[in-house]
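Treating backbone geometry as a discrete language has practical consequences that deserve illustration. The sequence in question and its structure tokens are set out directly beneath this paragraph.
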Amino acid sequence: MRPLPWLALSLLLLPALCMPGAARAAEVRSVEALDITRYAGTWYEVARLPVFFQRKCVAEITAQYTLQDDGTLGVRNSCRNDKGEMEAADGVARRDPEHPGRLEVRFAPDWLSWLPLTWADYWVIAVDPDYQWAMVGEPGREYLWILARTPRLAPDRLEALKRQAEGMGYALETLIVSAPSAGAPSGPESE
């Protein structure tokens, strides 16, 4: 008796479905709520996926979020470049009214703010209950930042965040782990 064609096909596909990585990754989800008052302040970059606009950043990478009167956040990203000079970019972040854990950021001039393409997704996908670390991404999985209030994050916390990102489908082969600057402050999550 000949096996049914679908049975033969399913037997051929079974090994591929059982291989690591064949499981469907969880979708990228933002946290359910984000308290922007607590999120405001200085964050140090602990790790990131490579992005064009940070190609020259080699050290002292920070993001400063400042509450504005209109409910937005002023954003100032800064870093020391490969020539030893400090660089900075100023922007603004606004809340997504339908998703409390999501922001949109813009670094284009104010007069271009009406264009939809000037705003980029900025989803907080994990945050410490005490706002001492956070992980930021977006649905396309092209951008990922692991941030902390101090330049150092406990190795076990960093590994846990990396596993969480991989579970959402992020490919971390090119993840850049930032080197903390000498004499940088440390905190409870530090080494």
Remarks:
- Confidence is low (pLDDT under 50) at residues 1-23, 182-191.
- The longest strand covers residues 57-67.
- The beta strands are 41-48, 57-67, 73-81, 86-96, 99-106, 120-127, 133-137, 144-148, 176-177.
